[in-house]
Design brief:
Radius of gyration: 27 Å
Number of domains: 3
Keywords: 4Fe-4S, DNA replication, DNA-binding, Iron, Iron-sulfur, Metal-binding, Primosome
Binding site for [4Fe-4S] cluster: 304, 387, 404, 445
GO biological process, one term: DNA replication, synthesis of primer
Helix content: 55-70%
Low-confidence stretches: 2-26
Mean pLDDT: 84
Strand order of the largest sheet: 1-2-4-3
Protein name: DNA primase large subunit
Strand content: under 5%
Number of helices: 27
Bound molecules: iron/sulfur cluster
Family: Belongs to the eukaryotic-type primase large subunit family.
Shape: elongated
Length: 500
């Protein structure tokens, strides 16, 4: 599926691919056709794409799935989820209906097809990942089903050739008209106009339990309205089975050193979606990002950076990883190198200039790409850490203040920190505990953000100036800062804008 010009496999290695695996080495390339907006993903894609597309498409789909998971953690209803997801689909994975007249149908559907299969590879490895992937993909499929027009959805369902889904003939509809009408809550006459299907009753236990079907001779008579839930549950159970097959095929991918690192990175990403942060576009308009103003700006910091800042002020010192995590964050909010050096020098106020210059100055300059190898300097130093990196790498040891408090603190210490940040609402603290118990640390952080900014979020929504970026779940400490700063300064300063 990848173009050969991007092949990074050692040519000698490529030549010794096991003959039994030859079908992997010589795939038959062909472009798939996508007559429908919905897809059951029965055929893996075989046309060529570049490795950049491979990675980017998967990352885009991951953002969509992660946001769907976030909606489910927040108990959003189906309608709320659909409304919340609209700008996110638009940004990452727009998929138009046939009737839209869009010229990009093939392009959109190809991306949808490929990204689904790439993530299958990334998430097939463990039962937990398979389950989460199936759940998120099913949510996505259901939303798409709901937003499809009845005629396009029916065409898609007919194309599936579901042998267990039998259309109820007209004479049977007439025979059971009374029973069907009472199930549908309709008048008798309308039963004959609607489509009805019959399936083995054990395929639709939820509909049976909710008494939404008419049962006769082991068959459940399902109205067209409930057809979507049958198709969705078929999608889900097929995907579950296919993921298990994929899991068995995974070891054969090990020999491809282009894909394995990407797939590993993607699966790690499902813990918390990763995001890179562009430090050159970081300072919110109108913000005074100077050493002298950091204490004031720290009211907009997420718990991880707030804790680092408090520890630094208390101890006039931070250990190595704490300095690194915090310096990168400060760089990301737009603090320039000179100001950053001033900040650290002032903060380490119990040591001499000489000691500071010898032991700390170089590291700060290195982070900014002011010193170090060519690569570091050309790349402008390091990028600020995302939540995923902070959550999964270098857990803090005794006396260290880096890491994510939602993951690395006891609930007691976390509560004290959150109270210090202004969170005293018992419901919010209980919600944080529940998020943490489910290992959804970044969701706990988003919950706190929403609580601390609830008035501003409401105002921005009421005024219709909430952007799609502002609606996405926060997965980066610098995004937390920026969003907090912008929301808290709305209307206070003419320079502060809700930017896209
Ligand atoms: Fe910081 Fe992210 Fe943890 Fe929030 S979830 S405290 S932003 S690392």
């Amino acid at each position: 599926m990848l173009r050969q010009d991007y092949n990074r496999i050692d040519p000698k290695r490529r030549n010794v691919i096991d003959h039994r695996k030859k079908h992997f080495a010589t795939p038959q390339y062909k472009d798939a056709q996508y007559p429908h907006r919905l897809n059951f993903y029965t055929q893996p894609p075989t046309a060529e794409i570049t490795i950049e597309q491979f990675e980017q498409w998967a990352i885009d789909r991951l953002r969509v799935l992660a946001e769907l998971e976030a909606c489910s953690f927040r108990n959003r209803s189906q309608q709320e989820t659909a409304a919340h997801m609209e700008p996110i689909f638009e940004k990452y994975m727009r998929i138009d209906a046939n009737s839209s007249g869009s010229t990009k149908l093939h392009e959109q559907r190809q991306k949808d097809h490929y990204s689904h299969f790439i993530l299958r590879l990334a998430f097939a490895s463990t039962a937990d990942l398979r389950q989460r992937f199936t759940r998120a993909e099913t949510m996505l499929f259901r939303l798409r089903c709901d937003s499809d027009s009845a005629s396009e959805r029916n065409e898609f369902v007919s194309s599936l050739d579901l042998e267990w889904l039998e259309k109820v003939p007209d004479e049977e509809k007439t025979k059971y008209a009374l029973e069907l009408a009472s199930i549908a809550g309709n008048k008798k006459g309308s039963v004959e106009e609607d489509s009805w299907f019959k399936v083995d009753w054990d395929r639709v236990p939820d509909l049976v339990q909710q008494r939404r079907v008419f049962l006769k001779a082991g068959k459940a008579y399902v109205s067209a309205r409930d057809q979507v839930s049958m198709v969705v549950s078929e999608f889900s159970s097929r995907l579950e089975k296919q993921l298990e097959l994929t899991a068995r095929a995974l070891p054969r991918l090990d020999e491809d050193d282009r894909l394995t690192p990407i797939l590993n990175h993607l699966s790690k990403n499902f813990i918390t979606p990763d995001s890179t942060y562009l430090s050159n576009s970081s300072a919110p308009d109108g913000a005074q990002i100077t050493a002298a103003n950091i204490d004031n700006l720290s009211q907009h910091f997420p718990a991880c950076m707030s804790h680092l800042h408090r520890s630094l002020r208390r101890d006039a010192h931070l250990k190595h990883y704490g300095r690194l995590q915090y310096t990168l964050f400060l760089k990301g909010i737009g603090l320039n190198l000179e100001e950053c050096l001033t900040f650290w020098r002032g903060a380490f106020n119990t040591i001499t200039d000489d000691k500071f210059n010898k032991e700390y100055r170089y590291n700060v300059r290195h982070v900014y790409g002011d010193v170090g190898g060519d690569m570091n300097r050309r790349g402008g130093g390091y990028s600020p850490y995302s939540c995923q990196k902070i959550l999964t790498e270098h857990p803090p040891g005794p006396g260290e203040a880096h890491g994510c408090p939602y993951r690395h603190f006891t609930m007691e210490n976390l509560t004290l920190l959150l109270q210090g940040m202004g969170v005293s609402d018992k419901g919010v603290l209980q919600g944080v505990k529940e998020d943490n118990d489910r290992t959804k640390y970044h969701m706990a952080c988003n919950r706190v953000f929403e609580h601390l900014h609830k008035n501003e979020i409401k105002k921005a929504k009421d005024e219709g100036i909430m952007t799609s970026n502002q609606l996405e779940t926060i997965v980066h400490p610098n995004e937390y800062f920026k969003r907090s700063y912008v929301l808290k300064n709305l209307g206070r300063d003419k320079d502060v804008k809700m930017e896209e």
